[in-house]
Amino acid sequence: MRVLLATDTFPPGCGGSGWSTYELAKGLRAQGHEVAVVRPRTTRGSVAGSQAYDGFTPIEYHAAAPNVPFIRNYFKNERLYRHFGHYLATLVRTRAIDIVHAQHVLTGPASITAGRETNVPVVCTVRDYWPVCYWSDLIYDRSSDRLCPACSPTMMTRCVRPRAGGLWPLAVPLIPYMCSNLSLKRQSLASADAVVAVSSTIAQDLRERASELDGARLETIPNPVDTAGIRDQAERQERPMASPYAIFVGKLELNKGVARLITAIERARLDWPLVIVGDGSERSRLEAAGRRARRDVRFVGWLPRDEAFVWLRYAAVLVFPSYGPESLSRVLLEASALGRPIAANDTGGTSDIIAHEVTGLLSHTAEGLGDDLARLRQDEGLRHRLGAAAQQRVEERFESSGVVRRMEALYATLVERGR
Asked: Are 337 and 308 in contact (CB under 8 A)?
């Protein structure tokens, strides 16, 4: 088959979407399919260096968006969907594409537009909550652990306030646009030949929160993970720290639960260093909290992927405090591939990866996370048992070869139906 992967991010960087797209492209190529990658670029200016990665050179569609709230969103959504959709239709025709697979929010509706123009089947993967939440994270009150129950005008008014700050009254008149934007995304998604949710939680939320999808074909197929490749990269370098340490890997943002990290290690009375791989807007607050608590918290910033794997490979435990509804965390999949024991907050698709007391420990609060961390600190046998089971589970359920075969089968069904 000739497959066109339309993706928001390529080459892969620090986010999970790009790596998941790459693993799919690599797996399809290994099975003998012709794979082309296309991505819209909405930032201005030139990109330094080659955009090629492992033999894949993305076709770029330039659609710069102004850096003005809401106006930027219109350029990256409604305007982009229309123009990029026509561009994709041209690619489909000139390259005789058999199937288009959109990977995320910027490319989903545009790919579906192209499919309608060319009568070529379109698959759209949903990796987060963009069809059901304007902000894609279900967070409406940054001081609360509760998630938004529904994206209604009333709830939008509440979620606009913390994001717009003192100017929030000026943003309220834009709520009708926000409602219209969400409706457009859902109606477009309903026209896909198949919608792929990366976790059971994403699938459930689409069923419960997006009635437009009631008649859509909805499949649950996870992100692919190259377990052997991850272990190979992680073992190329020596252990980065002689003594045991706990680790957090990810963006230092509120939805990642970083405000819970210090509370958790204090409650656990953790006497190991906590190594933080990543960066973000909450870093200064986290550094200050660590100093106040007089805990050994070490910030190493963003690292190249292979270096991050080394730190993860030798960590005694991964701490995962996220309270935003994780769709299917790539960090959890990678830690599991490396056989690391995990203490995690149970959010979103996390329980698709971690079975409590079997492949990790799950909790719902910072205090519960601290209690689980304390157990893992004190029980080496528990760490080994959970890590080994986590590795087995990810190999059985998320290994690239198996996931790609499932995607191939879906493609074949849709292409055959269209003939």
From this structure: no
